[in-house]
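assembly run, all chains below
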Amino acid sequence: DTEVTQTPKHLVMGMTNKKSLKCEQHMGHRAMYWYKQKAKKPPELMFVYSYEKLSINESVPSRFSPECPNSSLLNLHLHALQPEDSALYLCASSQDRAVGNTIYFGEGSWLTVV
Amino acid sequence: AQTVTQSQPEMSVQEAETVTLSCTYDTSESDYYLFWYKQPPSRQMILVIRQEAYKQQNATENRFSVNFQKAAKSFSLKISDSQLGDAAMYFCAYFIIQGAQKLVFGQGTRLTINP
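ok done. output:
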């Protein structure tokens, strides 16, 4: 089972709202990732968690707040977003951050900020 | 810095024919990993094939194979017997080993399959 599940699939939020994107995997993976993908562009890395600790923050604005409550779950808390933050947000996981481990992606959450 | 270049924004092929998608990369590392991912309209990124740079043998997965030319820093994907379900955006990706340890993607190639 190589499944990464993301909810919700679609989210529309106002600029003053607080919402969260959720990601879950049951493959026993210890590394989890958030990527942002704008239309017709490749995914861009936002955050990496390794063994539930934040390993990489690619200079993401603080209005995006990641959380890893346990080894299976990864959340992305959203607050005071801007319309330009509208994008597909992809969660991914891998066995760990060892070199070359395959990264498995979820189907993404479409976010629209109005 | 490592960069990945896909020079073909769009490609099309007749069903059952063979198509090759090109990818070049720039790196100073001697050991690294390369991947091809497929992103169909459903938007899920699906791993197609991976190649370890220390392996001289080209990776193959059923109808998908790569032509890995390390000296030329080239990593092309060949799809044989193209099927309608192969229609997707294809991303070439490089795994940075030193430092960041992250995946860097090319800009993608949109592949259309003509029936």
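Chain A touches chain B at residues 40-43, 45, 48, 56, 88, 90, 92, 97, 99-100, 102-108, 110 (CB under 8 Å).

The longest strand of chain A covers residues 18-25.

not gonna interpret more than that til we talk
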